[in-house]
Amino acid sequence: MKFRKSLILALSLSMASALAQAQQGVKRPKLVVGIVVDQMRWDYLYRYSDRYSAGGFKRLLNEGFSCENTNIDYIPTVTAIGHSSIYTGSVPALHGMAGNDFYIQNTGKEVYCVSDSTVKGVGSDSDAGKMSPRNLMASTVTDELRLATNFRSKVIGIALKDRGGILPAGHTANAAYWYDDKSGNWITSSYYMTDLPAWLKDFNAKKLADKYLSNDWNTLYPINTYVQSTADNNKYEGAFKGMSSPTFPIPTSKMKAQDAGLIRSTPFGNTITLDLATEAIKAEQLGKDDITDFLAVSCSSTDYVGHRFGVNAIETEDTYLRLDKDLEKFLNFLDASVGKGNYTVFLSADHGAAHNITFLQDKNIPAGSLKTAGLAGRLNSSLKEMFKVDNLVLGLSNYQVNLNNKVIKANKLDESAIRAACVAMLEQQDDIAYAVDVDKVSESTIPAVLKERIINGYNRDRSGVIQIIPKPGYFGGGATGTSHGTWNPYDAHIPFVLMGWGIQHGSTARSVNMTDIAATIAALLHIQAPNACIGQPVTEAIK
Ligand SMILES: [Zn+2]
Fold this sequence. Notes:
The protein has 543 residues and is α/β, with parallel strands linked by helices. It contains 20 helices and 19 strands. It starts with a helix and ends in an 18-residue tail after the last helix.
């Protein structure tokens, strides 16, 4: 009896220690926070750093590890693809996010990246709620964390833009939240839940967007100290509706009644996003136990501001100075809530942006607006002469020509001849460097880096079959503000900085790809890489 008791005791002790060992076996941070800054060029880490605080962007660089030469390894460089590629470690060829909007090639139907007619909005009955990650054809690193912990990890995605919150959070997320202009509320869809959590209803009831906009947007510092930007009143920037010039102060208190989505185009859109991220960490107890949670945040306002005002604008400079302050506050909150050294944060961008076209021209740098207006029509009329059939081109999107495959099939036309005719016509245009039939990439006389990015960006079911490569400095942009989408360094060179649990201090100038980000996070967490990941972990960054 005595013997059996002590045997049971010994057995249960060894079982307890085995369980403890198993729990200690894999070391992970309590929380991973991914921050994507929409349209953040890599050089913004340094461009405004004279006035960055010690606790924001500079803290990431001073305490963390920076991959200084991180590039997007596909085209087109746009928001939906960037967020998908960061989190899947993959490219449109495999993850299927071929653009913010793309044509389903066999039906000719154009779809929005995260639209889903099978779901309903939660928190809103507008169409803004009918969104889900179903069009994403690969798993995300956030999905892999959920799988690795048998769904005990919590994963939440947050962004003003639906696609900025939904795609990073993956298919198995507990929640993704985005902003509904109509109601001024943060919402989700029935893909995730049937009712908003009480804490989010309380957060919405604070009407923070309205509060922030009630104070007009003025510069954080005296306006003559913004030495990194063109003087405020200039022809390169787009004025807000109702304003006669693109200048400070911007009377958001008066404008907000007419423009429901105004918060997006101000730095306060980033503030409210990080306010919500803070609230989500508190209310959902993220990082409070030993099972790693993941919060995927995207700051969208930098993109709206960038599109309107461009790179060399006081409005953009001010937006980054304010984001830096918001970031400092958020990192301080993480220190206090999760504990310094208990969380890992990484920061990157979905794409960069070019300088304004006229600004570049005025400085004698080759640049121009790609002549795409009416281009599909011109292609169609030439093709009609040659092939006697109307509307052979459905449309141009993402610097690709989408052919009308249904009509081509129905008329039994020679598709390769149509492609060749399009390429020949496009290459006559003096603002186009190359037009490439995607099936002839390897035999084309174009630089190898372009070949790889074209192939990576081409999805058979969802991409156009002719890729247009504009000349350097040329892009589909107007007279004011800017845009992005090409392979060039201004669009493709992005920040990738990690800090916190498991991260070395240092930097590397070696070539790193956007697709290496998910591979690095997976390696750090000792979980499987996402199921279409083509990236490699940045091992130098990991302790
Ligand atoms: Zn954009």
